[in-house]
Design brief:
This protein is of the alpha/beta class and 291 residues long. The protein has 3 domains: 1-88, Orthogonal Bundle (Arc Repressor Mutant, subunit A), CATH 1.10.10; 90-159 and 255-291, Periplasmic binding protein-like II (D-Maltodextrin-Binding Protein, domain 2, 3-Layer(aba) Sandwich); 164-253, Periplasmic binding protein-like II (D-Maltodextrin-Binding Protein, domain 2). It has helices at 6-18, 21-28, 32-46, 62-86, 103-117, 130-139, 191-201, 215-223, 267-290; strands spanning 51-54, 57-60, 93-98, 122-127, 144-148, 157-162, 164-168, 180-185, 206-212, 229-232, 241-242, 255-261. It has a 5-stranded mixed beta sheet, sandwiched between helices. Strands 10-7-11 form a 3-stranded antiparallel beta sheet, covered by helices on one side. Helix 1 (6-18) crosses helix 3 (32-46), helix 1 packs across helix 4 (62-86) and helix 4 runs antiparallel to helix 9. The chain is elongated, with a radius of gyration of 22 Å. 31% of the residues are buried.
Length: 291
C-alpha cells in the first residue's frame, strides 16, 4: 500500500519555507542531517528528485513544484483533523501584510476571493514597507505577508517577478526636463535605492520633488504633471504613459514578490497562504496560455 508520511512531508515543506536544510531543522526540531535523510527517503518513495541544492539555497524541481501544493494541503487536512478531534475552534482572524501599492491590485482581489471560500474567517490587511512587514512577522504582529525581496535574499515563496516601469500622467511631459523630477516612495522602500542608483549609473541628473509612504501621495505629483515615477507594472493607473522607451531613463531590475509566512502560523493563516499561492499560480498559467 502506497502512502506519504506526513512528518516527511512537513520536513519537505519546512526546507522550502525556510530556504535550506539547517533552517528547516531548527524549525521542526531536527538536525540538518536528519532533515536531509528525510528528504532522501521522500525522493526515494516518490521516485523523483524534488529539490536542487546550490550555494544560493534550495530550489524545487519540476516534480517538487507538483508535490509541494499537495504537501501543504495534507498539512492543512491534518490540522483540521486534530482540531476536530480535540474539540477546538479555528482562529477566525488572519492578519496579512503587503506594501500599499498592491492593496488594490492584489489585496482586494485576494480577500474577496478568499472570503467567498471561507466566509467565517476575517482577513485584516496591514500595509507597510516590506522591511517593516518582515519585522512584524518576526514579532508576531502579523501572520503572513507579501513582500518585495531584498537584494540577494530568496526568503519566502516566490509569487512572481514584476517589471518596474517609468511612467507619467497623460498630457504631461516632465521627463523632458534636464533634471528629472521624481515622485517616489520614502527611503524605507526597497525599490527606491535601485532607481536612484540606475539614474546615477546612466549619468542622468535627478531631483526628488516628492516622497511619500503611501501610493496616493506618490501618484498625486505625477497626476499634476510635476514628476515622473516608477511603479510595478500591475499598479500603473489606466491611461498613464509608459516611458521605458525614453533614452534618458535606464532599464530597471524586476521586483521579486514573495509570500512569507510566520513560523508558528495558525491553520487559518496557512489556509490563506495556500489560497495566495494558488491565486498567483493560476495567474502565471493564464499568462502562459495567452502567450
Amino acid at each position: 500500500m502506497r502512502h506519504l508520511d506526513t512528518e516527511t512531508l512537513a520536513a519537505f515543506v519546512a526546507v522550502i519555507d525556510n530556504g535550506g536544510f539547517t533552517a528547516a531543522g531548527a524549525r521542526i526540531g531536527k538536525t540538518q542531517a536528519a532533515v536531509s535523510l528525510m528528504l532522501g527517503r521522500l525522493e526515494s518513495r516518490v521516485g523523483r528528485k524534488l529539490i536542487e541544492r546550490s550555494r544560493r539555497g534550495v530550489k524545487l524541481t519540476e516534480y517538487g513544484e507538483q508535490l509541494i501544493g499537495y504537501a501543504r494541503r495534507i498539512q492543512i487536512l491534518e490540522d483540521e483533523a486534530f482540531l476536530a478531534l480535540q474539540g477546538e475552534t479555528e482562529a477566525l482572524r488572519i492578519r496579512i501584510g503587503m506594501p500599499d501599492d498592491y492593496l488594490e491590485s492584489i489585496g482586494c482581489v485576494l480577500t474577496q476571493g478568499f472570503n467567498v471560500r471561507h466566509p467565517q474567517l476575517q482577513v485584516e490587511i496591514i500595509c507597510d514597507f516590506s522591511s517593516r512587514l518582515e519585522t512584524m512577522l518576526a514579532n508576531g504582529s502579523i501572520d503572513l505577508a507579501i513582500v518585495t525581496r531584498a537584494d540577494g535574499r530568496e526568503n519566502g515563496d516566490l509569487l512572481r517577478s514584476e517589471a518596474q516601469l517609468w511612467c507619467a500622467a497623460p498630457g504631461h511631459y516632465p521627463e523632458r526636463s534636464s533634471v528629472l523630477p521624481l515622485s517616489l516612495f520614502a527611503d524605507s522602500c526597497r525599490a527606491r535605492p535601485r532607481i536612484l542608483e540606475a539614474l546615477d549609473n546612466a549619468n542622468q541628473p535627478w531631483r526628488v520633488v516628492s516622497s511619500s509612504s503611501h501610493l496616493p501621495g506618490v501618484l498625486y505629483p505625477v497626476r499634476s504633471g510635476t514628476a515622473v515615477t516608477v511603479l510595478p507594472a500591475s499598479v500603473i493607473p489606466a491611461g498613464w504613459r509608459i516611458l521605458n522607451g525614453c533614452e534618458k531613463l535606464p532599464a530597471l531590475p524586476a521586483l521579486d514578490l514573495a509570500l512569507v509566512v510566520a513560523q508558528n502560523a495558525h491553520l487559518s493563516a496557512r489556509r490563506l497562504a495556500q489560497f495566495v499561492r494558488e491565486h498567483f499560480q493560476q495567474g502565471i498559467e493564464a499568462c502562459a496560455v495567452s502567450a
